[in-house]
């Protein structure tokens, strides 16, 4: 064996054989995989690779990319292809960083493929439409759904924050109609608090999918209360200040009250009667300040506010004579004529008393002198005069007025049997009353 190895020709032959065997091994490995060429390079196709835009998302909005997916063909040695196919960080990029608003055709760029791989993108370019973003501040509205527990109702929702910023493509900025949060209060017996996601809607009531809202979530609280209504608060004034004193002014710190209670009661409520004030108890010339509880009544369960503060200014009275106040007749029967016979003028003079500042403004036409002839039969009748005076103005002392009216059937009108009987049965008495009565006292 040593003799063979010392022979140079034998060594050359052995080296040649080993070289041929190594060449065969390498080329057999390359030809063992389909797609291998005689040069050792092969191709692979990757379908449906998404196009990834690179742009300033704070300033621009991508309306469309065409195509949105492409085919990528890579070629290279098998070992490198295996590495490329196994990778997950490659992409096809659409670099828009140097472009502004408008329609563009931009070349596509392979990113993340290993060195030694040839990449071909089909198609090589993409058409892209770019729009600028615009911001608009919008109030948050709350859509309350569901029905609370029996006898309760949902109140006005409280939202924090109550305004948000909506970002959309500039072409859609005028289409924003509302930003809404939905809160369900089904069978709720107390206030409902929740974090609600906001949704932007256009003028057709459709969701604006491209809108970005900041913040996207708000805190909403929906109070759950008894039904309520807000109505005027009416104080109940009783009596008058003693003779010689009058009310110059009356002020209350609130003229409305929110009443909670059964819905059927609230539906019929036009005002709420507050506390009673006896003006006869105010016997001094000064300003009274009264803090009064507003009483619960008419099935009300709660009032807001529960108190009212009243300031009443009492001053020394003055007097004034109002002349030629006409007498007004109410309760007339359409089938009869009614007229005032005493006093013959049909007018009265009246002395009134009140605070000087109020009294200066009172005129005769501000006073009503009323005769009520309701249900009276034909004939003469002496009736008391009832006066309707302005607020905080009263009659002077010792002025009890009476007046005489005459009721007769209208000419051409036929009296009913009952009216004729009444007229006959009372004619003597009426004549006696009319004959004995004096003229109206003034």
UniProtKB/TrEMBL annotation:
Ranges of biased composition (kind: Low complexity): 418-434
InterPro entries per the UniProt record, alphabetical: c-di-AMP_regulator, YbbR
Name of this protein: YbbR-like protein
Region (Disordered): 403-442
Organism of derivation: Paenibacillus konkukensis
Pfam (any one): YbbR
Domain of life: Bacteria
């Amino acid at each position: 064996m040593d003799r063979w190895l010392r022979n140079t020709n034998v060594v050359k032959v052995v080296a040649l054989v080993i070289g041929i065997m190594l060449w065969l091994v390498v080329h057999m490995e390359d030809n063992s995989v389909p797609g291998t060429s005689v040069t050792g390079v092969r191709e692979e196709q990757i379908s449906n690779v998404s196009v990834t835009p690179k742009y300033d998302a704070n300033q621009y909005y991508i309306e469309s990319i065409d195509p949105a997916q492409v085919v990528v063909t890579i070629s290279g040695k098998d070992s490198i292809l295996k590495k490329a196919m196994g990778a997950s960080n490659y992409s096809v990029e659409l670099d828009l960083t140097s472009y502004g608003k408008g329609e563009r055709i931009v070349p596509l760029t392979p990113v993340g493929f290993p060195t030694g791989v040839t990449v071909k993108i089909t198609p090589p370019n993409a058409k892209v439409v770019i729009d600028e973003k615009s911001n608009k501040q919008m109030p948050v509205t709350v859509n309350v759904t569901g029905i609370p527990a029996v006898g309760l109702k949902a109140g006005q929702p409280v939202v924090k924050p109550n305004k948000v910023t909506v970002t959309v493509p500039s072409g859609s900025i005028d289409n924003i109609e509302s930003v809404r949060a939905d809160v369900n209060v089904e069978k709720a017996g107390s206030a409902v608090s929740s974090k609600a996601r906001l949704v932007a809607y256009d003028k057709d009531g459709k969701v604006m999918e491209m809108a970005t809202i900041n913040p996207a979530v708000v805190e909403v609280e929906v109070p759950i209360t008894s039904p309520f209504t807000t109505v005027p608060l009416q104080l109940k004034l009783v009596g008058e200040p003693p003779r010689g004193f009058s009310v110059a002014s009356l002020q209350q710190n609130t003229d409305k009250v929110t009443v909670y209670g059964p819905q059927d009661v609230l539906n019929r409520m036009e005002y709420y009667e507050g506390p009673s004030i006896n003006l006869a108890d105010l016997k001094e010339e000064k300003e009274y300040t009264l803090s009064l509880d507003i009483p619960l009544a008419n099935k009300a369960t709660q009032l807001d506010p529960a108190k009212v503060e009243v300031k009443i200014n009492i001053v020394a009275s003055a007097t004034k004579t109002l002349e030629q106040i006409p007498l007004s007749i109410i309760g007339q029967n359409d089938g009869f004529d009614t007229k005032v016979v005493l006093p013959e003028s049909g007018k009265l003079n009246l002395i009134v008393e009140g605070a000087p500042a109020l009294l200066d403004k009172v005129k005769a036409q501000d006073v009503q002198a009323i005769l009520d002839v309701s249900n009276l039969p034909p004939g003469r009748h002496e009736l008391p005069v009832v006066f309707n005076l302005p607020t905080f103005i009263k009659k002077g002392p010792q002025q009890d007025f009476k007046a005489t009216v005459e009721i007769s059937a209208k000419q051409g009108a036929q009296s009913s049997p009952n009216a004729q009987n009444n007229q006959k049965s009372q004619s003597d008495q009426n004549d006696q009353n009319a004959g004995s009565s004096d003229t109206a006292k003034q």
